[in-house]
């Protein structure tokens, strides 16, 4: 099996070509399946029967592959490729982490923990109920036009909905949104009510392929089964024991108890990070919508990968896991079905010939 490569193709089909018990760890950011709520009974009946569930619709990116969480058939192949005791860190959405966890369990994984990645700049995607009543009644609110702050997209404080900005106004440096004052009686009664909270964390499911014998036996034989506590302590190898939380607020009262990460590890990865290779050099425009910060991915691959190990990412996207693996000196294999992202990922990992394991 060749490592240090980004493979183009459907991950299920590609994974079936992998030999068993060869990969040391998995760090991946798969589709969250943030579509309309599925028929859960139908999902579970399919999965329990060993069949794939096909969601009839598209995801938030408008793609069918993004419409639902990966099913047990994919995770079974990941499970097979992992060495006994190998860990998988799987990002998930807050609304669908239960389905992601069930899918992993049905594939044979043990769920060891959930790491919470905290951030503070998520934008609330909440329906304004008051505005919905006015819209239903055909009552048009007045418009508010305002200038964007230099260097920003013109974020307006309060409950203004940025999705209503007019593109032409954006080009001219100002924006328009509906006025805040409700018009109809129902709109006045339900003013201030919405449908969602501001996103401030993403779960990372920590799963493990069952051990072959004791922890000591498994680690001795395969090099897997344990996590790198010493290498992931807060501060240095004499720092605080790493917790199952990563925060971007080093000065908050709770930060000393969590894995304190640099302030750059916010939900929206800085342009320099997303457009850079493993050395930090700019290599081109990365248009992937959900790029994770490289430093965060470095911490994750270091946590579960033994020295000289192979990191697998079956949903490689623009290659953040593979970039992190190369930066840490690990071997890597990325699989991605969108050719546009494959090309970006290959630029980001740099020129490195695939080698046989």
Overview of the structural elements:
This protein is an alpha/beta fold. The chain folds into two domains: 2-32 and 69-121 and 199-356, Rossmann fold; 129-189, no CATH class. The chain has helices at residues 11-15, 40-48, 72-81, 97-106, 129-137, 167-172, 185-189, 215-222, 271-274, 294-304, 320-328, 339-349, and strands at 2-3, 5-8, 23-28, 82-91, 110-118, 143-147, 174-178, 201-208, 245-247, 259-260, 310-313, 331-336, 355-356. Mean pLDDT is 83; it is low at 148-169.
List the SSEs and their pairings:
Elements: E1 2-3, E2 5-8, H1 11-15, E3 23-28, H2 40-48, H3 72-81, E4 82-91, H4 97-106, E5 110-118, H5 129-137, E6 143-147, H6 167-172, E7 174-178, H7 185-189, E8 201-208, H8 215-222, E9 245-247, E10 259-260, H9 271-274, H10 294-304, E11 310-313, H11 320-328, E12 331-336, H12 339-349, E13 355-356
Helix pairs in contact: 10-11
Write a brief caption for the model.
This protein has 357 residues and is an alpha/beta fold.
List keywords for this structure.
12 helices, Rossmann fold, alpha/beta, two-stranded antiparallel sheet, globular, about 350 residues
Please tell me what the overall shape is: globular
Report how far apart the termini are.
6 Å
CATH superfamily of the largest domain: Vaccinia Virus protein VP39
> Strand share of the residues?
15-25%
């Amino acid at each position: 099996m060749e490592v240090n490569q980004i493979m183009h193709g459907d991950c299920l089909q590609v994974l079936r070509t992998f030999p068993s018990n060869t990969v040391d760890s998995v760090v991946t950011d798969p589709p969250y399946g943030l579509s309309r709520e599925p028929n859960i009974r139908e999902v579970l009946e399919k999965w329990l029967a060993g069949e794939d569930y096909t969601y009839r619709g598209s995801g938030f990116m408008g793609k069918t592959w993004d419409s639902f969480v990966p099913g047990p058939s994919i995770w079974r192949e990941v499970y097979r490729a992992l060495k006994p005791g190998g860990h998988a860190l799987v990002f998930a959405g807050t609304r669908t982490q239960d389905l992601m966890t069930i899918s992993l369990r049905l594939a044979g994984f043990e769920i060891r923990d959930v790491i919470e990645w905290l951030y503070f700049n998520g934008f609330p995607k909440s329906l304004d109920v008051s505005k919905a009543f006015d819209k239903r009644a055909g009552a048009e609110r007045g418009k508010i036009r305002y200038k964007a702050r230099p260097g920003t997209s013109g974020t307006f404080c309060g409950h203004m909905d940025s999705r209503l900005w007019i593109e032409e106004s954006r080009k001219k440096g100002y924006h328009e949104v509906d006025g805040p004052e409700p018009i109809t009686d129902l709109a006045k009664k339900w003013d201030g009510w919405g449908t969602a909270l501001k996103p401030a964390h993403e779960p990372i499911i920590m799963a493990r392929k069952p051990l072959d014998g004791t922890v000591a036996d498994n680690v001795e034989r395969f090099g897997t089964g344990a996590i790198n506590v010493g290498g992931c302590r807060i501060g240095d190898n004499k720092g605080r024991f790493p917790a199952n939380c990563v925060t971007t607020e080093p000065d908050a009262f709770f930060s000393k108890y969590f894995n304190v990460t640099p302030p750059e590890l916010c939900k929206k990865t800085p342009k320099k990070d997303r457009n850079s290779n493993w050395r930090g050099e700019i290599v081109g425009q990365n248009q992937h919508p959900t790029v994770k910060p490289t430093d965060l991915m470095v911490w994750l691959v270091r946590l579960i990968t033994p020295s000289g190990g192979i990191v697998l990412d079956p949903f490689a996207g623009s290659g953040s896991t593979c970039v992190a693996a190369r930066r840490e000196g690990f071997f890597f294999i990325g699989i991605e079905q969108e050719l546009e992202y494959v090309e970006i990922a290959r630029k980001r990992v740099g020129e490195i010939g695939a080698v046989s394991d």
